[in-house]
Amino acid sequence: MREVGHEDRHSTSARPGVPAASHGCQAAFPPDLARVGEMRQTVGAFLRRCRVSEPVAGVVVLAVSELVTNAVVHGEGEVVLRITVALDVVRVSVTDHNPAPAVLKEAGLDGESGRGIRLVDAISDAWESSGKETWCEFRYARAAG
Questions:
Q1: Could you give the CA distance from residue 3 to residue 8 in angstroms, rounded to a whole number?
Q2: Global pTM?
Q3: Is the four-CA dihedral 67, 68, 69, 71 of positive or negative sign?
Q4: Quick one: pLDDT at residue 16?
Q5: What average pLDDT does the segment 66-91 reach?
Q6: pLDDT over 70 for what percent of the chain?
């Protein structure tokens, strides 16, 4: 995963001591379930560098796991994961070449799949799927330091 930009806006933050900044990174890779764990680890390290608190980072990493798995299993072609950390929002975006949007499913008690998007819906502050892109957002308070 590579950082794709660091943008410091020299505007005044709404909260004293919190810089108004945006950080982003992305990774593009062929659909392979082995990449899911790698993306979890890489995103966790990126969020620590961005001073996102551990509880928030944990749920973001869980969402990354679910969305990347969904793209690998149900998507088509190359998977692109983008993470943006702004003043008080972390945004996760996963794209592939499948034009069908991700949907909430009801997994049966014995079902081995079908819970990922429902989990993203439960843990994120917002999510949407337009087909090729599925994204979610998490509001947070940046850790001091």
A1: 14
A2: 0.81
A3: positive
A4: 37
A5: 95
A6: 74
